[in-house]
């Protein structure tokens, strides 16, 4: 019998418009296309890649119409993937480096030879579908056949960007964050309005920028959680992989950089004991206080724990993240945190269009029993600090993406979509859960087992795209 390790095997099939058999009933109102992104191949010319984040991007497309699902998959035809097809690891990935010269490492540190292996998520920009990662090189693709249309570089003075930007539905603009190395290192906050050019909001100089995967946004502020996992241009010149160029400083605090979105001023820098995070959940304002919810880890050890050697073990040792809320007082610049849900929880999602920038009630995420890997889903009621759980033996669900029911009144009136691995069947399936009742209402099996993915976006008819998370 297979186990979760099946989700970390390389995949070599591409599919085009395969009709899936649906068990149960998909709601008639659920109409649109779910795009998922994540790694699909983990070796180059017999050489194993080192980290889960390094695998070459495999786009997955699920069209949902009138209760039926149609599935396609295709490798992202990036420069990095084409080189790998010829047995060459040309670009440095998150945890794996090619054999570079000193000059190559210098160019990479300054952003000149960045990978376009855009395997983290899918975003919508300027009317295009784009695969993105943590470099400035987005890859546009055809939403129908998933073929590549070309590169789209972020027009900001940054070495790299985060994949988890935010959409402000009132201002009708995306807000995102980049990291700058080399001359004047630090962070670059910028906006990308629907009807105008990209505009820099702030450049915050830091000699040793932190690794930043996401950030928080409120009506008036952007909040960067600057944990003590830091790097420098000098360390990036070493022969080590990108992830290993960062160092954890346990004696340093985690700092919240609160930036006014209107003028770029850093208005507060409250600190808390050291904590690491990949993913923020939500943030909102209440008077002179900000509330920032995120998945917190006690230190950076989650980063090396996602190495393939660990994840491919029968009982991987993966640190547990908890859902934590920080209250930031802008007057006193003091911060305090409390646990909303002990977890383990990761890949947190909400009813994004309803909750983003505002107080919310429900957070959904993936959980893990001791000694296993992503074997359950959680629905956390943050108002009552309670949790509901969905689990089934042999099922390893991925990130749950919330899709609201048109015209629904309640925050949890909708469905959750999760691409899961069924180890008994040795193939993947799309789970459809009623979000309010937190019960499965349908599933559709794929003809094979996909590697575990990361994030995605749902494109509903007549609505703005729904990202899975901030």
Q: Provide the spatial order of strands within the biggest beta sheet.
A: 1-7-6-3-37-38
Q: How does CATH name the architecture?
A: 7 Propeller
CATH topology: Methylamine Dehydrogenase, Chain H
Biggest sheet descriptor: 6 strands, antiparallel
Mean pLDDT: 93
Q: Into which percent range does the helicity of residues fall?
A: under 10%
Beta-strand portion reads 35-45%
- Overall structural class, as computed from helix and strand content, comes to mainly beta
What sort of overall outline do the alpha carbons produce when their principal axes are compared? globular
- The structural domain count equals 1
Strand segment tally: 38
Protein name: Retinal pigment epithelial membrane protein
Cofactor: Fe(2+)
Pfam families: RPE65
GO molecular function: carotenoid dioxygenase activity; metal ion binding
Q: How do you describe this structure in short?
A:
This protein is mainly beta.
Helices and strands in order:
Layout: E1 15-20, E2 22-24, E3 32-41, E4 43-44, E5 47-48, E6 56-65, E7 68-75, H1 79-85, H2 102-109, E8 121-125, E9 128-132, E10 137-141, E11 148-153, E12 160-161, E13 166-168, E14 173-180, E15 186-193, E16 199-205, E17 216-217, E18 221-226, E19 229-230, H3 233-236, E20 247-248, E21 254-260, E22 266-268, E23 271-272, E24 280-286, E25 289-296, H4 302-305, H5 308-311, E26 322-329, E27 334-341, E28 346-349, H6 352-355, E29 362-367, E30 376-381, E31 386-390, E32 395-397, E33 401-404, E34 414-422, E35 427-434, E36 439-445, E37 455-460, E38 466-467
Antiparallel strand pairs: 1-7, 2-36, 3-6, 3-37, 4-5, 6-7, 8-9, 9-10, 10-11, 12-14, 13-14, 14-15, 15-16, 17-18, 18-21, 19-20, 21-22, 21-23, 24-25, 25-26, 26-27, 28-29, 29-30, 30-31, 32-34, 33-34, 34-35, 35-36, 37-38
């Amino acid at each position: 019998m297979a186990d979760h390790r099946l989700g970390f095997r390389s995949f070599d099939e591409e599919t085009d418009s395969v009709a899936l058999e649906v068990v149960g009933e998909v709601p008639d109102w659920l109409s649109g296309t779910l795009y998922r992104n994540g790694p699909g191949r983990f070796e180059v010319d017999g050489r194993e890649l080192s980290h889960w984040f390094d695998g070459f991007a495999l786009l997955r497309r699920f069209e949902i119409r009138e209760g039926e699902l149609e599935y396609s998959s295709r490798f992202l035809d990036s420069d990095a993937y084409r080189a790998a097809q010829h047995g060459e690891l040309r670009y440095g990935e998150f945890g794996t480096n090619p054999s570079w010269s000193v000059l190559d490492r210098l160019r990479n540190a300054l952003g000149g030879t960045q990978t376009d292996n855009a395997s983290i998520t899918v975003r919508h920009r300027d009317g295009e579908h784009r695969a993105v990662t943590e470099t400035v090189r987005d890859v546009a693709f055809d939403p129908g056949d998933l073929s590549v249309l070309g590169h789209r570089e972020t027009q900001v003075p940054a070495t790299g960007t985060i994949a988890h930007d935010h959409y402000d539905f009132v201002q009708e603009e995306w807000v995102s964050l980049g990291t700058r190395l080399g001359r004047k290192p630090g962070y670059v906050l910028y906006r990308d309005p629907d009807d105008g050019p990209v505009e820099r909001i702030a450049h915050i100089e830091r000699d040793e920028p932190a690794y930043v995967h996401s950030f928080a946004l409120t009506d008036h502020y952007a909040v960067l959680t600057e944990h003590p996992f830091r790097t420098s241009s000098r360390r990036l010149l070493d022969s080590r992989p990108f992830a290993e160029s960062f160092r954890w400083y346990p004696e340093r605090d985690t700092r919240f950089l609160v930036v006014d979105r209107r003028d770029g001023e850093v208005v507060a820098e409250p600190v808390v004991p050291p904590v690491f995070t990949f993913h923020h959940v939500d943030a909102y304002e209440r008077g002179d206080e900000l509330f920032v919810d995120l998945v917190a880890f006690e230190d950076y050890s989650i980063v090396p724990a996602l190495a393939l050697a660990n994840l491919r073990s029968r009982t991987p040792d993966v640190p547990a993240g908890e859902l934590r809320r920080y209250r930031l007082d802008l007057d006193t610049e003091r911060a305090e945190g409390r646990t909303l849900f002990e977890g383990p929880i990761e890949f947190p999602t909400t009813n994004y269009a309803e909750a983003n920038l505002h107080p919310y009630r429900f957070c959904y995420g993936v959980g893990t029993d001791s000694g296993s890997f992503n074997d359950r889903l959680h629905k956390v009621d943050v108002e009552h600090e309670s949790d509901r759980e969905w689990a089934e033996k042999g099922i390893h669900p991925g990130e749950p993406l919330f899709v609201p029911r048109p015209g629904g009144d309640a925050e949890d009136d909708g469905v959750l979509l999760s691409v899961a691995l069924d180890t008994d069947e040795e193939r993947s399936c799309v789970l459809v859960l009623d979000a309010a009742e937190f019960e499965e209402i349908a599933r559709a099996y794929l003809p094979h087992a996909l590697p575990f993915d990361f994030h995605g976006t749902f494109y509903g008819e007549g609505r703005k795209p729904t990202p899975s998370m901030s």
